[in-house]
Design goal:
The protein is an all-beta fold. It has one domain (2-288): Glycosyl hydrolase domain, family 43 (Tachylectin-2, Chain A). 0% of the residues lie in helices and 55% in strands. It is built from no helices and 23 strands. It has strands at residues 2-5, 8-15, 18-25, 33-39, 46-52, 66-75, 80-88, 96-102, 110-115, 122-129, 135-141, 146-152, 159-165, 171-179, 182-189, 198-203, 214-216, 225-233, 238-246, 256-265, 268-271, 277-279, 286-288. The strands form six sheets. Strands 1, 18, 19, 20 and 21 form a five-stranded antiparallel sheet that branches. Residues 1-5 have low confidence and may be disordered.
Length: 289
């Protein structure tokens, strides 16, 4: 198990052999900046930059606006780095998505816009890029009632279509990975900062045919909520890692990022809640310590 403090709602991007992680710096509990770190082993991290900063990147940040769940994308066509996030206001009344962009991964990032994508109320969120470069923004919509799968424009800066899925199921913290042509999604129920049962669904079509939700892990997802699923492609095997937020441990500023191995076998998925493990990043193999 890997822990990182004051870096919550993490989003990841692999560039060459280096992982970049962005997330909420909850030092100022309700007005987090967005920090970026880099690592080659997901254990030892170097601080790169405060890529989105209260009162600097946007005048409303730190006053009437705050950010949650920042996620990082790279657009191969425009060669720009794009951040999508939950862009919120007082009492969660704004229900918007925020979009930022930069020419360099460490910034400076510029504010593109904040809005309800396609005029749909949007809150807790994540992103996914398919093999063909098509990008999606996935968020809880319509007062947390459903999940919205927004297909993004070619430059990743706009939402151009939305499919409403998991209607009335009140899911949040969606994290998607594609394994052998099958999309797998982990998500949780809406229970505030308290953890709950993680659920799994899968489909061969990103926008249709998702299976019935099935429980995975223990009843509180090992005291986490899904943030990301990482893919480690080695010479001998591909390893998948579950990244979860451990909120309020013991308080919001000290919320932690937890990493566990995630195993796919015979169409099933299992979180392996190890206290310690190591990965050979060349071969892709991992073992418990």
């Amino acid at each position: 198990m890997v822990r990182h403090r004051r870096q919550s709602g993490a989003g990841f991007l692999l560039v060459g052999d280096t992982w970049y992680m962005i997330g909420e710096d909850r030092g100022n509990s309700w007005h987090p900046d967005v920090n970026m770190y880099s690592s080659k082993d997901l254990q030892h991290w170097k601080f790169e930059a405060k890529i989105i900063e209260n009162g600097v990147t946007h005048p409303g940040l730190g006053k009437d606006r705050f950010i949650e769940r920042p996620k990082l994308l790279y657009n191969k066509k425009t060669k720009q780095y794009v951040v999508w996030c939950h862009w919120e206001g007082k009492n969660y009344g704004a229900s918007e998505a925020g979009i930022f962009y930069a020419d360099n991964i460490t910034g400076p990032y510029k504010f593109h816009k904040g809005e309800r994508p396609l005029n749909v109320k949007s809150r807790d969120c994540n992103v996914f890029v398919d093999d063909d470069g098509t990008a999606y923004f996935i968020s809880t919509i319509d007062e947390n009632q459903h999940l919205g799968f927004f297909t993004l424009s070619d430059d990743y800066l706009e939402a151009k279509d939305c499919k409403w899925l998991f209607k009335g199921m009140r899911r949040e913290a969606p994290a998607i990975v594609k394994v052998d042509g099958v999309y797998y999604m982990l998500s949780s129920a809406c229970t505030g900062w308290d953890p709950n049962q993680c659920m799994l669904s899968y489909s061969t079509n990103m926008l249709d045919g998702w299976s019935k939700l099935e429980p995975i892990g223990d009843r509180i997802a090992y005291d986490t909520q899904a943030a990301s699923i990482l893919t480690i492609k080695g010479t001998k095997q591909t390893t998948y890692l579950y990244v979860g937020d451990r909120w309020m441990d013991p308080d919001l500023p000290q919320s932690k990022t937890i990493i566990f191995p995630l195993v796919f076998k015979d169409g099933k998925c299992e979180i392996v809640p190890l206290d310690k493990f190591e990965i050979n990043y060349k071969t892709g193999e991992w073992r418990e310590l």
